[in-house]
Design a protein that fits this description.
With 125 residues, the chain is mostly helical. The chain contains five helices and no strands. The longest helix has 39 residues.
Length: 125
């Protein structure tokens, strides 16, 4: 009789832990989705993921490179100018130069995401 009660107690405990774990996972997924929405500023989660991965928003990157739109030519021109001006051997700042590099990487990723876009918003489909 004691063994049967012990087994029932173990099963009940397992059910409680299972439900708690399931609820925790659901809550974590929900919170992650909400955070991605906040970070994307009403854009797709791919853009939000890039912002988190690169540590810089698209707007910050555009401000650093002083560009209004993300045309490849304008970005490359501004990048080259700012990179050269901030060359340490010319008395520039390595810190600013690294920010310029990160900004260009972030904008390049955005251009790539736009090129890979699928679905009803994609152009040419």
């Amino acid at each position: 009789k004691m063994a049967k009660q012990l087994i029932q107690l173990i099963i009940a405990g397992g059910q409680v832990i299972g439900k708690a774990f399931t609820n925790a996972v659901r809550q974590e997924i929900r919170l992650s989705q909400e955070a991605a929405k906040r970070h994307s500023q009403n854009k797709s989660t791919a853009h939000a993921a890039e912002t988190l991965r690169m540590g810089m928003t698209l707007d910050e990157a555009k401000q650093i490179l002083n560009v209004d739109n993300i045309s490849k030519e304008e970005v490359e021109k501004q990048y080259q100018h700012l990179f050269d001006v901030n060359d340490k051997s010319k008395g520039g700042s390595f810190y600013i130069q690294s920010k310029v590099v990160r900004a260009k990487e972030r904008i390049d990723q955005e251009i790539q995401l736009e090129g890979n876009k699928q679905g009803p918003d994609a152009t040419g489909t």
